[in-house]
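Title: Prediction job returns without error message
Component: structure pipeline
Severity: low
Priority: P3
Assignee: unassigned

Description:
Job completed but the reporter wants confirmation the result is attached to the right record. Sequence as submitted:
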Amino acid sequence: MIDALGGRVEQMWEADLDAVVESAVAGADAVIHDDDLQLALFLLYAVHYGSLPGLDADLEWDPVLLTGRARIEAAFEEELRGIVTIPEPPEPVQDEVASWLFRLTAPTGKKGLSHFVARKASVEQLQEFLVLRSIYTLREADPHSWAIPRLTGRAKAALMEIQFDEYGSGDASRIHAAIFAQTLRGVGLSDAYGAYLDQVPAVTLASQNLMSMFGLNRRLRGATVGHLAAFEMTSSIPNRLYGDGFRRAGFDEDVTGYFDEHVEADAVHEQIAGRDLAGALAEDEPELLGDILFGAVACLALDDIAGERMLSAWQGGESALRLPLPAAGGATR
């Protein structure tokens, strides 16, 4: 896939690629944890974003590659739908859907990843945390923005309100991805997108791929909305704890500013996402209710899997990365 998307394959044969993808899917114990499948899917999405250098833009709509992508997506979606459990659904009424989402995302009191980062994480673990976050956060908001032309009315207006803030409200220096890039530089890491692609495990790519799959398939626009709602509703408290962890380690506001920004911003976004976006969409297009709920539950499920993997590795005295970090500059504290 790397050779194909880089234009280093003169001619791709549909039967050959389809057979390779089919074999990879059939041989995977779990698509979510399969490094090759998740990397292949990530690269297929990257050609749409233009997020990585060296990908041939002429291949964005190549039918052979799209066929392979669809086969991986089908296995990925089937696996996700098989592992998530959706609580008793609400009626497709704005207030009821919003209340359902707030119950789903309410804090459980469990001391998880964010508490570990706040109280115990070493500088090396904090760097690993940022590396794992970089796959999404250096492209923050982009996957959900695919839904903008696919929504209408109240839901579209609510999504635009959230995304306008994510993109800095007209100030390029306040784009959330740019603020996160400063955080990376502040701890001595590269802010180049994909710089640590080899270091991250499959489940990290799966979290990004989930958003891209929802966003790039119009039939899953409801899932995109549900995902964003759950994402925003579970952001404010963890980000406060993440900021506390970096302050504890001696980092200044150049590093902690990203997390502090999200404590306030996402407390507002969660209200818009729950009621004006997800609730309004369910009320206006009730046939999308099931996918809205699925998107929200799938968001939480993958975040839990990724967080538990990270926390388990650190508590066991191991790295949460696939490969060690390359040598980098020193952090500013």
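Comment from assignee: result matches the submitted record. The longest helix spans residues 253-284.
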